[in-house]
Design brief:
alpha/beta; Rossmann fold; 4 domains; ten-stranded mixed beta sheet; binds adenosine-5'-triphosphate; FtsK/SpoIIIE/SftA; FtsK_dom; FtsK domain-containing protein; P-loop_NTPase; ATP-binding
């Protein structure tokens, strides 16, 4: 039993031990779990404690990164904005005041927006704050910072003035409170009419005027073709109207009418370059209005919720006044010329026009930027140009000739040009030493013809002949006008002719035969030239020139095209004073005989300076036909040379080598359209001697020299005698040069031997004789020596005999007397016959001395001696004298 109990107890013990062991194991496992759990908890707690710190650091890092990226982006955006702003407001539209200077927009370039301050963004380079004005809109200013508002107004106006060509911005000020004080710095613009003020109460009329300008510009300038002046400028490169900026600084409440007008200007102004800068006057809502609020707490563009800006300081006062003074000075000095190339067609279209119905070419730019054209044809046929000296007549003639010459080929148009004033600018049309080119249309250029009115006469005679030729051809073809003649005779050469005479009043001055004939010829040409394509363009600087015409209303009436340069008098009709207010380099063009309705104002490009002109001339010259000849150049100041004279070059020994039957002595150049020599024929006929009369040694020698040399050219050597007697030491060098050049054919005589020459020649007259020319220099000085008897007769008697009988025996006297009275004395006294003087050249011998037997009619020729000119008269062939220019010394 005990055992059982013992066994039982043992089993219980074992079981309990087992249970204890298991419990212990579980406990230790639980404890281990607990420890691990605690550790985990501690870890978790530790980790949990570390989380906010890390996340915060990460967040801060992220924020810093974002900050940095944001600043870079802002800086980048600001830089781009600044770049864009600089492009939008180039040059002086956006430049700082330090070193600021006007930079007018180039042709067709938009003026851009104008800077008034900088956009407020911290930490970046400043971004210009811009306000659109010119061609864009209006600016409305408000706010309690009056100084800020004033700074914006000054900045806007100065930048606007600087962005446009001088004169292209006009300011109109309305400042009833300060009476213009708000715009004081801009006052110098007033001297050029670029700033005007309207007084208190003037707002209504000012707005009316702006509305009227807008209406006019829309109607006549934009004319439905363009939506705005900006568009017109972009398309044509021209800006025909100025910008008008009205600056309205405060004032009374607007009445209904004024508000209505203001609304119209706001709505329609910008397209027409009419803009408002307004302070203290409400403007209606409109997309073109930019509102600038300048408050003491800051400024904003775009209204009170707009962009915050820091306003620029106002431009320095001296900068404003100096800029305005400079702009005004430039405007007062006149606008820069439009380019001459504006008048020319593109090269590929040159010489394409047909002149059958007339000649049309632009002469300059009209106020609306459109070309102003001049036409010559059946109507108007002729033109009158007037303007005081220096106003640009010569330039206008260049411009017109250039515009025509570029359009019409030389087969369609020819020019003849005569300049009565001193100057050589027209010489450029002919071939020169410096420039081998010439204007292919130019047939004749006469320069420095101020004293040689005969040249003008010669041109008119030439044109009259041409007129006759054309009229005859027209009659033959039974037509009346040039256009018809050209149609029925397409192969004929019928160009239109334009004859330009500058300072033409010189031609008509005086009451002598030249003036009378010139006026008659002009009248005839003006009347009949119209239908035959001969057009006259007369220019004059002075009213007297026109007065020469006023006496002939029929002549004046033909000149229906009038061109008046600034301050020209009486070119236009009596009540038409448009020329009086013309700016420099402008002209009133009027094809209605000067009546007001016909006025067109043109701005004339500069065409006459050498470089501008020669570009065109060279181009046209290269286009000329291979057989084109250069224009004849007549220069009244030049002394022609015998060796260059075509008539001299044409002289030659007869082909059979014998003496010529009809030798010719050339005496000088005739004042004529063609280069011709005055020639004296010396056939075997009574009276064929020459007297040169006057005291001028050089000219007298030149006449005898040319005569002798031209005669010598026609005689084979050894077949003619040239006896040279020189009795004036001053003439000695020239006479001796002649003697030496004539070599073996010449013999020399002086005071001692001249008597022998007379005796021997007179005695020889009975024989058959070879040609003998006696060249007597200052023969009157030999009167003493010739008074002595040589045999039966005195030397003078022998001289008279030679002159009387010699020519029929080929012995001719070519003698210089230093006065008409001295010649008469040598010929036998005051009443002596002068038949043996068949021809004479008067130098400083007056017309009235040449009367009686030397010249037909009474009172002698109209001859007023002048330097290096002579009057030649050959009674065998002429009815009136002919002015000649002696040839210059031959060596
Ligand atoms: N449209 C123009 N634009 C710029 N300059 C001009 C223009 N017209 C003339 N000029 C300049 O003015 C000056 C005088 O001009 P121009 O010789 O044509 O005058 P003018 O009336 O013929 O004078 P004058 O009768 O005294 O010769 C010249 O130097 C010329 O280059």
């Amino acid at each position: 039993m005990a055992d059982r109990r013992g066994q039982l107890a043992s089993r219980v013990r074992d079981t309990l031990a087992e249970a204890l062991g298991a419990t212990r194991t579980r406990l230790s496992a639980a404890q281990a779990d607990l420890t691990a759990g605690r550790e985990r908890l501690a870890r978790v707690q530790r980790a949990a404690a570390a989380v906010p710190e890390r996340v915060g650091a990460q967040r801060d890092r992220r924020i810093a990164e974002i900050d940095a990226r944001y600043s870079t982006r802002i800086a980048e955006l600001a830089r781009r904005a600044a770049d864009a702003a600089r492009q939008e407001a180039p040059g002086c539209a956006g430049a700082d005041w330090a070193g600021w200077t006007p930079t007018p927009a180039r042709r067709a370039e938009p003026p851009g927006a104008l800077r008034v301050g900088t956009v407020r963004i911290d930490g970046v380079d400043p971004v210009p704050a811009l306000v659109p004005l010119l061609d864009a809109g209006h600016v409305h200013l408000s706010g309690d910072d009056r100084a800020g508002c004033d700074a914006v107004v000054s900045a806007l106006l100065l930048r606007a003035v600087g962005r446009a060509d001088p004169g292209a911005v006009r300011l109109i000020g309305y400042d009833p409170d300060q009476l213009g004080g708000g715009l004081a710095g801009f006052a110098p613009l007033g001297t050029a009419g670029l700033l005007t003020f309207v007084g208190p109460g003037g707002l209504g009329p000012l707005l009316d005027d702006l509305v009227e300008q807008i209406r006019r510009i829309n109607e006549t300038v934009l004319a439905g073709e363009y939506a705005s002046l900006r568009e017109l400028a972009a398309a044509t490169g021209r800006r025909p109207e100025p910008w008008r900026v009205a600056v309205l600084l405060g004032g009374e409440e607007l009445n209904r009418h004024e508000r209505g007008q203001l609304d119209r200007v706001v709505r329609a102004g910008a397209a027409c370059g009419v803009h408002l800068v307004v302070l203290g006057v409400p403007l209606p809502e409109d997309p073109t209005v930019t509102r600038v609020v300048a408050g003491v707490s800051g400024a904003r563009i775009g209204g009170s919720a707009g962009l915050a800006v820091r306003l620029d300081p106002p431009p320095p006062a001296t900068l404003v006044t100096e800029t305005c003074r400079d702009v005004a000075a430039r405007v007062n000095a006149g606008p820069p010329p439009t380019p001459f190339t504006d008048l020319l067609p593109p090269p590929e279209l040159m010489w394409r026009e047909d002149s059958a119905d007339g000649l049309t070419a632009p002469i300059g730019e009209g106020p609306h930027g459109r070309p102003v054209r001049l036409t010559l044809g059946d109507y108007p046929p002729h033109a009158l140009i007037g303007g005081p000296s220096g106003t640009g007549k010569t330039n206008l003639i260049f411009a017109w000739i250039g515009a025509l010459a570029a359009r019409y080929s030389p087969a369609e148009l020819e020019f003849y040009l005569l300049d009565f004033k001193e100057g050589v600018s027209f010489a450029r049309f002919a071939q020169g030493r410096r420039d081998p080119s010439w204007l292919p249309h130019m047939r004749l250029v006469g320069i420095n013809v101020n004293t040689d009115r005969e040249f003008g006469l010669a041109l008119l005679r030439f044109l009259t002949d041409e007129l006759r030729r054309r009229a005859d051809a027209a009659k033959k073809h039974e037509v009346t006008k040039l256009a018809e003649l050209r149609a029925v005779d397409p192969t004929g050469h019928w160009p239109r002719i334009v004859a330009v005479v500058d300072e033409f009043q010189m031609l008509l001055a005086g009451r002598d035969v030249v003036a009378r004939e010139a006026a008659d010829l002009l009248e005839d040409l003006a009347r009949r030239g119209r239908s035959q394509g001969i057009h006259l363009v007369l220019a004059s600087q002075d009213v007297r020139g026109i007065e020469a015409l006023w006496g002939r209303p029929a002549l004046v009436a033909q000149f229906t095209l009038r061109i008046a340069l600034p301050k020209a008098l009486r070119i236009l009709a009596e009540r038409n004073d448009a020329a009086q207010s013309l700016p420099r380099w402008h002209a009133v063009v009027n094809a209605e005989s000067g009546m007001v309705e016909g006025n067109e104002v043109a701005r004339i490009p500069s065409a006459s300076d050498w470089e501008t002109w020669s570009g065109l001339q060279h181009r046209l010259w290269r286009m000329r036909s291979p057989d084109a000849a250069p224009a004849r150049l007549f220069d009244g100041d030049a002394i022609p040379r015998l060796a260059d004279a075509p008539d001299f070059r044409a002289l030659a020994v007869p082909p059979d080598g014998t003496a010529p039957r009809n030798p010719v002595a050339l005496l000088g150049e005739i004042i004529d359209v063609q280069s011709r020599s005055a020639s004296l024929r010396l056939p075997r006929a009574p009276g064929r001697n020459l007297a040169v009369l006057g005291t001028r040694v050089d000219e007298a020698c030149a006449v005898l020299d040319a005569a002798a040399r031209s005669l010598a050219r026609q005689h084979p050597p050894g077949t003619a005698r040239f006896s040279i007697a020189c009795l004036d030491p001053d003439a000695d060098p020239m006479a001796r040069a002649l003697y030496e050049d004539l070599a073996d054919d010449a013999a020399w005589y002086d005071e001692e031997t001249v008597g022998e020459l007379m005796a021997e020649t007179a005695d020889g007259l009975s024989g058959p004789g070879s040609p003998h020319y006696l060249l007597l220099f200052a023969v009157d000085a030999a009167a003493g020596a010739l008074a002595a008897r040589m045999g039966r007769r005195t030397g003078l008697e022998q001289l008279r005999r030679i002159m009387h009988d010699g020519p029929e025996r080929r012995t001719h006297v070519l003698a210089w007397w230093r006065g008409v009275a001295r010649m008469r004395a040598d010929l036998g006294g005051p009443g002596a016959r002068t038949d043996q003087i068949g021809a004479w050249v008067a130098l400083d011998a007056h017309g009235d001395e040449l009367g009686s037997s030397l010249y037909p009619g009474t009172g002698g020729p109209d001859w007023y001696p002048r330097p290096w000119r002579g009057l030649f008269f050959d009674r065998a062939v002429q009815r009136t004298g002919q002015v000649i220019i002696p040839y210059g010394p031959s060596r």
